[in-house]
């Protein structure tokens, strides 16, 4: 797909289809008015006659006889009073849906002057260009690697975005949106790849590939022997039941000053979670291939950095293993000594995410991090608590938590904070070791984070539980690419100018 910004007047820009916004009430955006007068008042006529809907995200495709456009796509943008960025995104999703398999080859999208409510950063043309770029990329995603018959190629091949200016700031904002969309799509490719292919060594190869494609990314991969030397017995216990060896994957992007402390991302990379000896029920178990969704989001964010080169230092660490039952698998009752020296009684082998993460979280101390953010499809309880809308956020630092919440709001990729009070910690008491790896039936997301918090005392840390947000179940089954937008927004807000 060819994307570009266009600041010529609409009538001077030829395209097979022009896209404009139509609000239910109130003033029209300037580009809708411009198109209306170029078309001799057609849009007003159609609206009066009820032939186009202005309801939020309604789409009406109207054939035109006139040049410079063969079609007009009218997108409803709803009521004036309530037009947050999330509604604008809804309209963009509907627009892409209507364009992607349609007859138009070239499209001119005149939506960057659509009014959006919110603070200055949400209302600005730059924010809208960024959201348009991201939404186009992410809504045009397909995954057909494993279909023997590929769908026919799309006609749509060139997208022009009307903008008031095509200077550096506008280009950068739009390109960041496109890069974020591509980052999400990379995350989705990884999450959708079947678990007989996507195993820890394959994930490590993706990191090596990224390092060879982008000279700003360096990678280092630790095998089981090297992890054993470091005392990562908890991580290694998870992979023991699998014939696929475990890996610790480290990627570094150093775009900032040498003395700037790095932001560290830690991803859960369980390439398949059967539960181990504490075997999961069979129904829907295929979806546990996305138990590497945290690491996939880390990969997506690193790709965005590699493509946009912000002035920031970021280190990514992925703890990857496959959780399988086997004669050599860890048992309920086993006690392991973590890299930190603390001992853990494994009461349930299905609570394996925290077992791999705790050693990775100990390992990252060596980077002297500005902050550590871990991402994990950690608990089914998070889906019960927050559904599929919000990522669960728990943190040992209010400032960091608020920054991530704000980044999620700005990026339309929301998170919601849950408490991490000391009162919950005793749920992890064990009769035989320093702690158990499960906390019983109540507050499952919180006790999982409490477990992790025992390994993150020496730095600012936040945990994102993405069990509900990284994946779509049902008809649209597949990886969502979340929370790449949140991560990118957070990292960019820390990048130097
Ligand atoms: N990977 C799962 C969590 C999960 C469940 C993610 C459903 C996405 C959808 C995790 O390893 C797990 O099995 N957690 C257990 C923890 C329990 C044993 C304390 C869970 O949530 O049931
Ligand atoms: Mn599990
Ligand atoms: Zn898991």
Automatic annotation (TrEMBL):
Mn(2+) 2 binds at residues 268, 273, 291, 352. PROSITE patterns: CYTOSOL_AP. Keywords: Aminopeptidase, Cytoplasm, Hydrolase, Manganese, Metal-binding, Protease. Its EC number is 3.4.11.1, 3.4.11.10. GO terms for cellular component: cytoplasm. It is found in: Cytoplasm. GO terms for biological process: proteolysis. The active site is at residues 280, 354. It holds the Pfam family Peptidase_M17. Binds 2 manganese ions per subunit. Its cofactor is Mn(2+). One of its GO terms (molecular function) is metalloaminopeptidase activity. Mn(2+) 1 binds at residues 273, 350, 352. It catalyses: Release of an N-terminal amino acid, preferentially leucine, but not glutamic or aspartic acids; Release of an N-terminal amino acid, Xaa-|-Yaa-, in which Xaa is preferably Leu, but may be other amino acids including Pro although not Arg or Lys, and Yaa may be Pro. Amino acid amides and methyl esters are also readily hydrolyzed, but rates on arylamides are exceedingly low. Residues 348-355 form the Cytosol aminopeptidase domain. Belongs to the peptidase M17 family. Presumably involved in the processing and regular turnover of intracellular proteins. Catalyzes the removal of unsubstituted N-terminal amino acids from various peptides. PANTHER family: CYTOSOL AMINOPEPTIDASE, LEUCINE AMINOPEPTIDASE-RELATED. This is Probable cytosol aminopeptidase. It comes from Marinobacter antarcticus. The gene is pepA.
């Amino acid at each position: 797909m060819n994307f570009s910004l266009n600041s010529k007047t609409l009538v001077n820009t030829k395209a097979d289809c022009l896209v404009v916004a139509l609000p239910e009430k109130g003033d029209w955006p300037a580009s809708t008015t411009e198109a209306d007068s170029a078309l001799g008042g057609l849009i007003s006529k159609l609206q009066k006659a009820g032939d186009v809907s202005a309801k939020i995200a309604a789409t009406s495709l109207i054939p035109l006889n006139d040049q410079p456009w063969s079609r007009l796509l009218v997108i409803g943008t709803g009521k004036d009073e309530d037009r947050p960025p999330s509604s604008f995104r809804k309209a963009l999703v509907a627009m892409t849906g209507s364009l992607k398999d349609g007859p138009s080859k070239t499209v001119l999208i005149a939506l960057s002057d659509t009014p959006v409510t919110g603070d200055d950063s949400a209302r600005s043309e730059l924010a809208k260009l960024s959201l348009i770029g991201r939404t186009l990329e992410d809504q045009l995603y397909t995954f057909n690697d494993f279909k023997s018959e590929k769908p026919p190629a799309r006609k749509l091949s060139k997208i022009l975005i009307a903008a008031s200016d095509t200077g550096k700031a506008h280009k950068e904002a739009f390109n960041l949106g496109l890069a974020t969309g591509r980052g999400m799509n990379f995350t989705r490719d990884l999450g959708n790849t079947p678990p007989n292919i996507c195993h820890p060594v394959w994930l490590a190869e993706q990191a090596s590939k990224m390092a060879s494609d982008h000279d700003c990314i360096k990678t280092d991969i630790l095998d089981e022997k090297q992890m054993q030397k470091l005392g990562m017995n908890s991580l290694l216990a998870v992979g023991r039941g699998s014939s696929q060896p475990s890996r610790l994957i480290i990627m570094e992007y150093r775009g900032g000053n040498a003395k700037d402390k790095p932001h560290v991302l830690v991803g859960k990379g369980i390439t398949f979670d059967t539960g181990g000896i504490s075997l999961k029920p069979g129904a829907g178990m295929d979806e546990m291939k996305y138990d590497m969704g945290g690491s996939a989001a880390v990969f997506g964010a690193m790709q965005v950095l590699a493509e946009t080169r912000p002035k920031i230092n970021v280190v990514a660490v992925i703890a990857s293993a496959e959780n399988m039952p086997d004669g050599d698998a860890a048992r309920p009752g086993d006690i392991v000594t973590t890299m930190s020296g603390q001992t853990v009684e494994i009461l349930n082998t299905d609570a394996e995410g925290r077992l791999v993460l705790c050693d990775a979280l100990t390992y990252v101390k060596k980077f002297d991090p500005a902050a550590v953010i871990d991402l994990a499809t950690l608990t089914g309880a998070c889906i019960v608590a927050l559904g599929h809308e919000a990522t669960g956020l728990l943190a040992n630092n209010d400032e960091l938590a608020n920054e991530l919440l704000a980044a999620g709001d700005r990026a339309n990729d929301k998170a919601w904070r849950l408490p991490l009070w000391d009162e919950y910690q005793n749920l992890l008491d064990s009769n035989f070791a320093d702690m158990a790896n499960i906390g019983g039936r109540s507050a499952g997301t919180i006790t999982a984070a409490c477990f992790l918090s025992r390994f993150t005392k020496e730095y600012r840390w936040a945990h994102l539980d993405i069990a509900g947000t990284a994946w779509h179940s049902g008809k649209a089954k597949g990886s969502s690419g979340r929370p790449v937008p949140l991560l990118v927004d957070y990292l960019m807000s820390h990048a130097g100018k």
